Amino acid sequence: MKASAPAKIILFGEHAVVYRKHALVTAVNLRCFADVKRSSDFKIISPLGITKLDFETHPWISYAIKNFSNIKPINGVEVRIESQIPIASGLGSSAAVTVSVLKALDAEFETGLSNDDICEIARKVEIDVQGAGSGTDPFISTFGGMWLIPERKKLNCKDFNILVVDTKEKSITSEMVKKVAELRNKYPEIIDPIFDAIDGISLRAMEVFDTGFDWKKLADLIFLNQCLLRAIGVSSSKIEKIIEMLSEKGITAKLTGAGGGGCVIAIGDVEDLKIDNSFIVKPEKEGVRIEE
Ligand code: PMV
Q1: 137 labelled catalytic
Q2: CATH fold of 2-154+285-290, please?
Q3: 131 falls in which pLDDT band (50, 70, 90)?
Q4: Does ligand 1 lie within 6 Å of residue 17's CB atom?
Q5: Contacting residues for 262 by C-beta, under 8 A, at least 6 apart
Q6: Whether residue 86 has its Cβ less than 6 Å from ligand 1
Q7: Taking residues 282-291, what's their average pLDDT?
Q8: Is the shortest distance between the CB of 15 and ligand 1 below 6 Å?
Q9: Whose CA is nearest to atom 3 of ligand 1?
C-alpha cells in the first residue's frame, strides 16, 4: 500500500508560537510517498540509505513502525520512501514521512485507524525522536490546509504561489529554539514584546487572507516578521543575502521555520523569478491520502 503526506510552510509566527503566540501555517503541494509491503523482516529504503529498523539513520520511520506495532504487532515490513520535500530545511519532511508511513501501514495491515489516530501516533513519534515538539507538523501533514495555530482554526485555503529558496544550510530546530529561549531568559522584558508583535503580525495576516489578497499589506507583514526574527537571532548571513537579492527584484521575503538556515519564502508575483535553489509551491488542501 502506498500513501503520501504533504510538506508544510510556516507563513508567519515561527518561534513566537513556542510561547503560545499565533502562527499561520499551511500544507503545501510537495509530498512524501511511503510504499509499504508485508515482509518476513524489516527493511527501510529511502534516500538516506537501506537499513533494517534503525533509530539512527531512519529515526522517524523506525519509531513510526515501533509505535504502530504497539497497536498491531507485526513481524516485518518493507518501507520504501520517495520524497519531494528537502530534508532539514523547515518544510516538515520528518512529519510527512512519519504520517505517510503510518497511513500506509494502517492500510496494509487493515487496522482501521482514523486520521485523528494517525496524527496522535505521529505526535508520539515526534516526542520519541525529538523529546518535545508542538505537534504542529504532524497535524498539518495529516489534515492539509491552512491553519491558525495554536488553536487550530481552519482558514480558507486559497490558491497562491509561494516562492521557496533553499539556503542549503541545515536548520536545526532544537538548537534554534534553545538559542531563543536563552535570549528570552536574559532579556524577557525585551523579547516578550517582540513575540507579542509577531502575534499581531500573524493575526493581521489572517485578516488579509480572509478578506482577499492585498499583496502590499502581506509584503509589509513579511518584512516586519523578518525584522523581528532577525532581532531574536534566528536569521543567518545566507538568509539575509537571499532576502536582499529578492528585495532588489522588488520581492519581500522572510525565513520560514526555525531559521539559522533552511528556507526563505516570498509570496505574490513570484512565478517567473529565476533564482538558484528555488521552487514554487502552493497551499495544499489535502492531507495524508492513499495513493492508488
Ligand atoms: O523548522 P521547523 O519546520 O521545525 O519549524 C520550527 C518552528 C518553531 O516555531 C521554531 C518551533 C515550533 O515547534 O513551533
Answers
A1: yes
A2: Ribosomal Protein S5; domain 2 (3.30.230)
A3: confident
A4: yes
A5: 88, 89, 90, 91, 166, 167, 169, 170, 171, 255, 256
A6: no
A7: 97
A8: yes
A9: 90
